[in-house]
Amino acid sequence: MQLCKLLGIIDRPTLYATLTHVAYREWMELWECDPWDEDRADLRAGIIASAAVSPYAGKGRVPKPLDFMPYAKFNRGKQQQSVEEMKSIWDAANRAAVQVRKQKDR
Hints:
Structural class: mainly alpha
Order of helices and strands: HHHHH
C-alpha cells in the first residue's frame, strides 16, 4: 500500500494492472537504497534531535537517535523508563539549560 500511496494509485488491483515487473523491481531497488516508511522518518528525526541535544548533555550521557524514537521497531526490546528516571532526565536537562543561560548572560 505504501507504493500505491507514493504513486497516487487508489488500490492494489490498479497497481498490479499498471505496474510491470521491471518497474516494480526498479521501485524495490529505490526502496532498498532509501526506504520511505515511517521508521526511516523517525530515524532522521532522532538523528537531528540527538545532534541538537548533544552539546548540552553531560560527559557521560551522549544521547543516541534511538533515545528520541519511542515507537521505532528497533526500540521495542528496550525497557520502559520509570517515572523516577524520567524526572531525573528532566531535572538534568533543566540544570543544563540554566547553565547555558548563565553562560550566555556573562
